[in-house]
């Protein structure tokens, strides 16, 4: 067996899995105001930036695809997340700015109300404090349509509401935006690895948690069922979130679906690698490239990762 591993050239020739910059999607956090570029303390190298700053930096982005998260000010939040559906909201502004500078860039938008609601949950609440599924998916449809009208290539619903993919598909079609793809957060787990993201997006729930609508980390079959329902509702892509602790789900979905598949290397995974590298206990480049290659090997066609820009530099 060692003969085919003897030299670097032989190892590359026999490689079963490749990692390319076109496999990577860079998350971006967009905030209100002007000339804003604020580091996220829990995620070294990640910033929240205003639309004008993003427009100036667009030409420098090496990734060919981005995933946009809107981070409104607290004064813009309310019980129903109404700012999320505005045609002139943060995300539509960011989409237009990106497309003006880079028409070829694939722009994906997160479709969820958690960052826009005063209570921090992913939908509209009932009087008893439960998330109202059907009222919530109607708003998600309007949110996706606003993003698509601004030029988004793909809407990525992450609220884990039942029927959200169908509701978004119907809203897009009704608005004459049937060309817009849907990347469903089909298997999104109630994970402990989201902490730094909630800091960056200011989206932590004000009370309780999200276990009533996100998947239990213990449930493998349920994750596959969720994904198959989203595929039947019209999803164009499926996604697993988080990535590394759930490579069995990535592998299962790759075997069970013919749709393109993404995996989200989430904030906690990113922060752990960054902090371990800072402590000198791992070699960052080698560890990150190994992690990303393993996600690809498990079956992911694309990886959403805060490391996207660094990886692009490393592999160019």
Q: Residue ranges: pLDDT <50 for 5 or more in a row?
A: none
Beta content = 15-25%
Q: Which sheet architecture does the biggest sheet show?
A: 8 strands, parallel, barrel
Number of helices: 11
Overall helicity: 25-40%
Approximate shape: globular
CATH homology-level superfamily: Aldolase class I
Predict the CATH topology.
TIM Barrel
Which strand order does the major sheet show?
A: 1-4-5-6-7-8-9-10
CATH classification class: Alpha Beta
Helix-strand pattern: HEEEHEHEHEHEHHEHEHHEH
- The number of distinct β-strands equals 10
Radius of gyration: 19 Å
Query: What oligomeric state is this?
Result: single chain
- Provide the number of structural domains: 1
Distance between the termini: 30 Å
CATH architectural label: Alpha-Beta Barrel
Mean pLDDT comes to 94
Briefly note the structural class of the backbone: alpha/beta
Structural overview:
- The chain is α/β, with parallel strands linked by helices.
- The protein has a single domain, classed as Alpha-Beta Barrel (TIM Barrel), CATH 3.20.20.
- Helices cover 38% and strands 17% of the residues.
- The chain has eleven helices and ten strands.
- It has helices spanning 8-13, 51-57, 90-101, 133-150, 164-174, 195-201, 220-233, 247-256, 267-278, 284-298, 308-315, and strands spanning 24-31, 37-39, 47-50, 65-71, 106-111, 154-157, 181-188, 237-241, 261-265, 302-305.
- It has an eight-stranded parallel β-barrel with strand order 1-4-5-6-7-8-9-10, surrounded by eight helices.
- Strand 5 (106-111), helix 4 and strand 6 (154-157) form a beta-alpha-beta unit.
- The longest helix has 18 residues, at 133-150.
- The chain is globular and about 65 Å long.
């Amino acid at each position: 067996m060692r003969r085919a591993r003897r030299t670097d050239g032989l190892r590359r020739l026999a490689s079963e899995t490749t990692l390319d910059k076109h496999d990577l999607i860079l998350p971006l956090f967009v905030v209100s105001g002007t000339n804003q570029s604020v580091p996220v303390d829990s995620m070294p190298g990640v910033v929240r930036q205003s639309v004008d700053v993003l427009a100036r930096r667009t030409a420098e982005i090496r990734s060919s695809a981005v995933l946009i998260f809107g981070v409104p000010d607290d004064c813009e939040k309310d019980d129903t997340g109404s700012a999320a559906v505005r045609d002139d909201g943060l995300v539509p502004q960011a989409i237009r700015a990106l497309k003006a500078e880079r028409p070829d860039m694939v722009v994906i938008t997160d479709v969820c109300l958690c960052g826009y609601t005063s209570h921090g949950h992913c939908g509209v609440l009932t009087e008893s404090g439960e998330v109202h599924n059907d009222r919530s998916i109607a708003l998600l449809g309007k949110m996706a349509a606003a993003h698509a009208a601004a030029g988004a290539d793909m809407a990525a619903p992450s609220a884990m509401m039942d029927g959200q993919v169908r509701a978004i598909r119907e809203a897009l079609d009704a608005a004459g935006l049937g060309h817009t793809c849907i990347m469903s957060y089909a298997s999104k787990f109630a994970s402990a690895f989201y902490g730094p993201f909630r800091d960056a997006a200011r989206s932590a729930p004000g009370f309780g948690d999200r276990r009533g609508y996100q998947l239990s980390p213990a449930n493998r079959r349920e994750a596959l069922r969720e994904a198959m329902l989203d595929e039947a509702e019209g999803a164009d892509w499926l996604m697993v979130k988080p990535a590394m602790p759930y490579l069995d789900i990535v592998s299962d979905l790759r075997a069970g679906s013919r749709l393109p598949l993404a995996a989200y290397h989430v904030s906690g995974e990113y922060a752990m690698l960054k902090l371990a590298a800072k402590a000198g206990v791992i070699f960052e480049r080698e560890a990150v490239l190994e992690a990303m290659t393993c996600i690809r090997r498990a079956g992911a066609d694309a990886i959403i990762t805060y490391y996207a820009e660094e990886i692009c530099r490393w592999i160019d």
